[in-house]
Amino acid sequence: MTDFSTADPTLFVCTTCGIAWEDGRRIGKSGGEKLLERLRAIADSSPLKDRLSLCPVECMDACDRGCTVSLSASGKYTYLFGDLTTDDSGLDSISASVLEFVDRYCESPEGLLRWSERPKLLKKRIIAKIPPVAPQG
Ligand code: FES
Questions:
Q1: In terms of Cα–Cα distance, which of 123, 75, 131, 63 is closest to 98?
Q2: Domain tally for the chain?
Q3: How far is the CA of 93 from the centre of ligand 1 (A)?
Q4: What CATH number is associated with residue 33?
Q5: Percentage of the chain surpassing pLDDT 70?
Q6: 79 domain residue, yes or no
Q7: 13-70: per-residue pLDDT in tens?
Q8: pTM value?
Q9: 61, 17, 117, 120 alpha-carbon torsion, rounded to 10°
Q10: Is residue 135 part of a domain?
């Protein structure tokens, strides 16, 4: 039987959240792209470097709660987070909190983090917590 508790996580980052427009033209990087860059920079210098896949995606249909990210792994809970800052001054702290959550998620066999175990900045930013799919057969 496969031990899913050691499954490596994937963090999906919406790169279409936080796009700025001017005169019908897109300007600069989106908030999601900035968040992805910051997450990559911090993850690359952490023990998560070899475990975490960071995956850019377009829209997770939670646009009114952007920026959004989603965390999942085989056999574990899936989380959708929103209201992540697009403010440059908040990127470091929100990115560090997301990666702290990922770190604790890796330690949990089901990826289930109770309220008290969640980083403070993320406690009210969880939009959904979806149970793992039951193993087939
Ligand atoms: S644009 Fe990011 S969730 Fe829709």
A1: 123
A2: 1
A3: 21
A4: 3.40.30.10
A5: 93
A6: yes
A7: 999 999 989 999 999 999 999 999 999 999 999 999 999 999 999 999 999 999 999 9
A8: 0.92
A9: -130
A10: no
**Could you tell me if the CB of 97 is within 6 A of ligand 1?**
no
Residue 61 C-alpha to ligand 1 middle, in angstroms?
A: 5
Examine residue 137 and state whether it is found in any structural domain, yes or no.
Answer: no
Ligand 1, residue 62: give the atom nearest the CA.
Answer: 3
Residue with tokens 């690359």: 44
Which of 64, 68, 80, 84 to mutate for ligand 1's pocket (most ligand atoms within 8 Å of CB)? 68
Q: Which amino acid is at 78?
A: T
Task: Return left, alpha or beta for 96; rule: phi > 0 is left, psi -120 to 50 is alpha, else beta.
Answer: alpha
- Parent domain of 54: 4-130
Would you call the peptide bond into 67 cis, given omega within 30 degrees of 0 as the criterion?
Answer: yes
127 lines ligand 1 (CB under 6 A): no
| Residue 136 belongs to a domain | no
Mean pLDDT of 97-114: 96
**Cβ of 128 below 6 Å from ligand 1:** no
Q: Which residue has the tokens 């070899």?
A: 50
Do residues 18 and 63 touch, judged by C-beta distance below 8 A?
no
